[in-house]
Every structure is written in structure tokens, then in C-alpha cells.
Design a protein that fits this description.
341 residues; 8-stranded mixed beta sheet; elongated; 11% strand; single chain
Length: 341
């Protein structure tokens, strides 16, 4: 099968390499033709396209439908579709592998139906490790084009032995292949949205726990001077531990109930950079956490951990600084409390 790939960043390139290794032909397009040609020379794509029109012409064999993977940022999907749709023919399939809002996906699916085109949403998790580990794929859309593209999803996803089988005596379920047709249009991106919201929460839990461990020696430097501005530390003699955080995260990887791939990555970064020098502490959010919280509100479903994790990211970027100044001002006005730094 020939597949057109629009967007050849780290994920798009690695997806192409995984497909090529399994017998697919990939035609790649990116805004920098020189970089695309370089990727073709390295064998990361089969051929480079000079434009989207050229991509469509190279990808589609005579009498065959075209399959095009969008591996572009969510904010550029609409513009890409505007250019791509007029170039496609009835029956062609466009798969959005980005983190698009599921509501936008449903609207785009309806739009493409009017052109007799198929639009699949494929929430994709695996990051830069997907080339070797495979990608976890959460697919939404109509059954027929999903079935047509099954070989693509099978190739990009991990093998069934990527995780131990929970019920080895039972038949293998679709999800055990590492990809799942989650439901109609938008379902894939909805599942990926919640996946990323959960990711925020897990990351925040690790970060807060490790921060407590990193402060476990504060009791050894605590001096009680009767400072009315700060509540005294209870039992400072109990908090005099100099802990090796990188070694603790390494330890937790072995047999601990909180072990995970995220913990593996945490242990790796701490082993290479124990003081986390160069990391400023401002944490970005790419949208999925916000959409997850919005969905929880729409559904009336409680999500306190995911909401707190999202708002903590806002705080990390000093977007709560004015509120902190207001608190300083109020405390000074009602109690004459001086600002602490």
C-alpha cells in the first residue's frame, strides 16, 4: 500500500520509517522541501513531494483510493484540509493523527462527507519512542474506512506481546494489538483527550511526591526565631533526611506498585541530570488537559485531580502572580504582615 504523510517532524518521520520497514511505500510532504529530500535520501520516506498536489499524484496508483496521514499540529489541520480536499477523489481517506479537539473532528468528518471523502481521527500516543516501541492508536470514524486502513494501524501499533496478557487463556481482543476502533467520528480523539488529561494527573503526582522527598532535610536547617509570619515547623527533628532522589526513582521502577513508563522516563532524566539544571519549571499545556476538564464540566463528572494538575501548569508559568500579590496586599492591610520572599 502507498501512503501519503503530511508532516514529517519527529513523529511523522518515525511513523514513515515504521511503515517502510513493513513493506509500505510512503510519500512525504513538509513545508521545507530540502529537509524532505534529505529524509528521502536517508530512507526515512520513500519519496518527497514538492506540494500537496504532488503528494496526491504520487500517492495514488491508478484505480486505487488515496490514504493520507495528517501528522501536523492541531492549529494547522484546518488549513491543510482546505488545500487537500479539492485534490482528493471520492473514497479517499484522511487520517488525523494529531491532538485535535474531538468536536472539531466531528465537524470535519461531516464536512468531508459532503465531498464523499472519509475522515478518521486517530489519537496517537508514543512520542519519539514510537519508532521502536510502536504507537498506541485510538481510532474514531466509520467502520469501512477503518477496516481498509487496518494494516496501517497494525503496522504502527505495538505487537500483542508489548504487554503481558491479562487473560492468556482467552481470545486476543482488538485492543491487545495496540490499536482500537473506539467508536464513530470523534471517539478516537475523545479517548486520546482523556488519556492526556490522565497523563497530566500522573505527572503531577510524581512531581509533588518527589518534591516532598527533595525537601525532607529542611528540619536540619530550621531555626525557630518566633517569627509570627511563618507557622513553626512541627517536629523539625523528624525531617532531617538527605535523600538520593535519582536512586529512589530507580528503586521504584523495580517491583513498585507505582511503576510506569513515565516513571522510567523520570528516572532517566534524573540519572542524567540530578539537579535538573536547565529546566526552568514553567510547564506548558497543549490543550488536551483543558478539553478534558471542559468535558467533565459538560458531563457533570467530578475530576478534581485532573483539574488541579491543569491549574498547576498555569501556576507554573506565573499566571497566578497577580493573585499572589493581592494576597500579600490583603495580609499587610489587615494584619501588618510583611511580604515574604
Amino acid at each position: 500500500m502507498q501512503v501519503g504523510i503530511i508532516g514529517l517532524g519527529r513523529m511523522g518521520e518515525n511513523m514513515s520509517r515504521r511503515l517502510i520497514a513493513n513493506g509500505f511505500t510512503t510519500i512525504g510532504y513538509r513545508t521545507s522541501l530540502d529537509k524532505a529530500k534529505e529524509q528521502a535520501q536517508k530512507g526515512y520516506i520513500t519519496a518527497a513531494a514538492t506540494s500537496l498536489k504532488d503528494l496526491v499524484q504520487q500517492t495514488k496508483k491508478q484505480g486505487e483510493r488515496g490514504v493520507f496521514l495528517l501528522v501536523v499540529p492541531a492549529q494547522t489541520v484546518e488549513a491543510t484540509l482546505d488545500e487537500l480536499i479539492p485534490l482528493c477523489a471520492p473514497g479517499d481517506i484522511i487520517i488525523d493523527h494529531g491532538n485535535s479537539n474531538f468536536k472539531d473532528t466531528v465537524r470535519r468528518h461531516q464536512r468531508l462527507q459532503g465531498h464523499q471523502l472519509h475522515y478518521l481521527d486517530c489519537g496517537t500516543s508514543g512520542g519519539v519512542y514510537g519508532l521502536t516501541r510502536g504507537y498506541c492508536l485510538m481510532v474514531g470514524g466509520d467502520q469501512e474506512p477503518v477496516a481498509y486502513c487496518a494494516s496501517i494501524f497494525e503496522t504502527l501499533s505495538p505487537a500483542t506481546d508489548a504487554a503481558p496478557r491479562l487473560l492468556p487463556d482467552k481470545p486476543v481482543t482488538p485492543a491487545e494489538h495496540g490499536w482500537l476502533h473506539c467508536g464513530p467520528s470523534g471517539a478516537g480523539h475523545f479517548v486520546k483527550m482523556v488519556h492526556n488529561g490522565i497523563e497530566y494527573g500522573i505527572m503531577q503526582a510524581y512531581a509533588e511526591g518527589l518534591n516532598i522527598l527533595s525537601q525532607a532535610n529542611l528540619g536540619s536547617s530550621y531555626l525557630n526565631k518566633g517569627d509570627a509570619e511563618v507557622a513553626p515547623m512541627a517536629d523539625p527533628e523528624h525531617y532531617q533526611y538527605q535523600l538520593n532522589i535519582p536512586e529512589i526513582t530507580e528503586l521504584w521502577r523495580r517491583g513498585s506498585v507505582i511503576g510506569s513508563w513515565l516513571l522510567d522516563l523520570t528516572a532517566e532524566v534524573l540519572k542524567e541530570n540530578p539537579t535538573l539544571e536547565g529546566y526552568q519549571g514553567g510547564v506548558s499545556d497543549s490543550g488536551e488537559g483543558r478539553w478534558t476538564v471542559h468535558a467533565a464540566v459538560d458531563l457533570g463528572v467530578p475530576a478534581p485531580v485532573l483539574s488541579t494538575a491543569l491549574f498547576t501548569r498555569f501556576e507554573s508559568r506565573n499566571q497566578g502572580e497577580y493573585a499572589r500579590r493581592v494576597l500579600n496586599g490583603m495580609r499587610f492591610m489587615f494584619g501588618g504582615h510583611h511580604v515574604r520572599k
